[in-house]
Amino acid sequence: MTCAFTASRYDRGGEDDYINCPMNKEQYEVFQEALVTAERAPLHEFEQDGVKVYEGCMPIEILASRGKDAIRYGPMKPVGLRDPRTGHRPWANLQLRKENREGTLYNLVGFQTNLKFGEQKRVFGMIPALKNAEFMRYGVMHRNTFLNSPKLLNGDYSMIDHPNIFFAGQITGVEGYMESAGSGLLCGINAVRTLRGEQRLILPDFTMLGALQGHICNRDTKDFQPMGANFGILPPIEPKIRDKRERYAALSARSLAYFDSMAIYN
């Protein structure tokens, strides 16, 4: 902990939510070079050419190979953090997140990897705060399969060719726990409405779940990729609000006002 500090970005949340492992420019550049040249685990035949890696779960070593600053603008971004030892923002920063209540296990945030186990220990141990870390579990890549939903699904999560069959969750191309739960709720609502002979529910695109519904059934999509909730997929508010926090608050208020007026929970 002499090389680390506890803090959440922009001081949001509890102060001990994350352990931050800062790096200066020299440390980062040595680490980045070691990461891209480290030995990777061999791929199975189905993982070879023709299978794309989902951008949101890309192995850290693949992302690092895209450029010297790629991971510094990704999972190792230092924004919203200040190292109390220096008083300045780190050049790069790895965050560790608690995995158990006792705080004896932590995971490396955003560090999906396909490096061999020995290489993980060697390379990740180059991060100053992890020099003496004990690695209890090494990273492995897993395959997330998802439908080509724009060609197969309607916006209500039913199949185009078999509208009484519904899909929900990550397989539809919504990415994230809350997003998957939300798709499940909408899928269940629409299954019940179908049984009752009622109109199916497709939310407007200015709600987050409605925007995700629109994403999975966008017939113009040529290279479909999963999408998580983000304000960028919502239509803008006019006139444009320049302040980001005020803009996001207004986007949220617009959606909440719709749900309040529709009283669909009944």
The count of domains is 2
Structural class: alpha+beta
Largest sheet: 4 strands, antiparallel
- Rg, nearest Å: 22 Å
Count every helix, treating DSSP H or I runs of 4 or more residues as helices.
7
Strand order of the largest sheet: 1-2-3-4
Strand content: 5-15%
Q: CA-to-CA gap between the ends?
A: 52 Å
- The helix/strand series, from N terminus to C terminus, equals EEHHEEHHHHH
Form type: globular
Helical residue percent band:
25-40%
Catalogue the unreliable spans. none
How many E strands?
A: 4
Quote the average pLDDT.
89
Oligomer: single chain
Q: What would your notes on this structure say?
A:
The protein has 266 residues and is an alpha+beta fold. It has 2 domains: 5-130, no CATH class; 149-235, no CATH class. The protein is built from 7 helices and 4 strands, in the order ββααββααααα. The chain has a 4-stranded antiparallel β-sheet with strand order 1-2-3-4. It is globular.
Topology of helices and strands:
Elements: E1 5-6, E2 18-23, H1 25-37, H2 60-64, E3 92-98, E4 106-108, H3 117-124, H4 149-152, H5 177-196, H6 208-216, H7 244-262
Antiparallel strand pairs: 1-2, 2-3, 3-4
Task: Provide a compact summary of the structure.
With 266 residues, the chain is of the alpha+beta class.
Key attributes of the depicted protein:
single chain, 7 helices, alpha+beta, globular, 2 domains, 4 strands, 4-stranded antiparallel sheet, 266 residues
